[in-house]
Design a protein that fits this description.
Blueprint: E1 12-19, E2 22-28, H1 38-45, E3 55-61, E4 66-72, E5 77-78, H2 82-96, E6 100-105, E7 108-116, E8 119-123, E9 152-155, E10 159-164, H3 173-181, E11 191-199, E12 202-209, E13 213-215, H4 219-231, E14 238-243, E15 246-253, E16 256-262, E17 264-271, H5 273-277
Parallel strand pairs: 2-3, 4-6, 10-11, 12-14
Antiparallel strand pairs: 1-2, 1-17, 3-4, 4-5, 6-7, 7-8, 8-16, 9-10, 11-12, 12-13, 14-15, 15-16
Length: 280
């Protein structure tokens, strides 16, 4: 494996953050060039030999806004990561004193705001509902896929496959998610959600993320489930979602899908030179 990192001090600084237990390593590359390779991302994501994360987020300064790039724990690129976006938005707003923030990702332009009471909101944009935008392998109805359980397909900058069940506890979600992540209808793999409707404004769900596995929470998955439930007439557009790591609010508005929840900056650290040299 090869990993190249250019920085001015000894080691590579990073922040560890999480949103509802969905945890991230964040590298701030706004002031200095830091080249992250898939190999370095995978090594960092190893919870035994690295730092461990669900996603790695790299901050760079674009022409008009802060740009975020995301990697999964297996080193693959993730087009969007809602909880990491909220965590970084909170950090930058605390740093700058701003209450609103414009960011860009591979998903496009995103907007974040301080929701009060320690909560942070991010507008994840409008969902992608057409088969070729998600993307799926060929043209089909995205509301009910020709897969046992008739799941709904949604794009939130990354692909999602949502199954609605009567009893969430009866599903072996790790095995179920692993079995569907590589389904041939999803050429770029998929995040898998298993959701149970609690009430018209309340959903309980578990998440299997592509390139990661089981996670305690997922922002983009929460948005996808809320959109799928609305499209199927199971809930209204504003819902509370219970995940293994805590509670998230999602509101599908005219201007996009807003997600709101808590964030936590856990610690700041520095990768050692010897760790980085071991990857070269």
């Amino acid at each position: 494996m090869a990993a190249m990192c250019h920085f001015n001090d000894t080691g590579l600084p990073f922040m560890k953050m999480h949103g509802l237990g969905n945890d991230f390593v964040v590298v701030d590359a706004r002031a200095q060039k830091i080249d992250i390779t898939p190999a370095l991302a995978e090594a960092l994501g190893d919870r035994h030999r690295g730092v461990g994360f669900d996603q790695l987020a790299v901050m760079t300064q674009g022409r008009q806004a802060l740009h975020l790039t995301f990697y999964n724990a297996d080193g693959s690129i993730a087009g969007a990561c809602g909880n990491a976006t909220r965590c970084i938005a909170r950090h930058v707003m605390d740093e700058s004193g701003a209450t609103d923030l414009h960011l860009t990702t591979d998903r496009g332009d995103l907007w974040a705001r301080d929701a009060g009471a320690g909560l942070t909101s991010v507008n994840m944009g409008q969902p992608q509902l057409k088969w070729d935008e998600i993307p799926l392998a060929h043209e089909m109805d995205t509301l009910e896929l020709p897969i046992e359980g008739a799941p709904t397909a949604t794009g939130m900058g990354n692909p999602h496959c949502t199954f609605f069940v009567d009893d969430l506890d009866a599903v072996n979600v790790p095995a179920f998610g692993a079995a569907h992540e590589h389904h041939p209808l999803y050429p770029e793999r998929t995040n898998v959600q298993v959701a149970q409707i609690v009430a018209e404004d309340h959903i309980r769900m578990k998440v299997w993320e592509r390139g990661v596995g089981m996670t305690l929470a997922s922002g983009s998955s929460s948005c996808a489930v809320a959109v799928a439930a609305t499209r199927r007439g199971l809930t209204g557009r504003q819902v509370t979602i219970d995940l293994d790591g805590g509670q998230m609010s999602v509101d599908w508005r005219d201007d996009g899908v807003w997600m709101t929840g808590p964030t936590q900056h856990v610690f700041t650290g520095r990768l050692t030179e010897s760790f980085l040299e071991s990857l070269r």
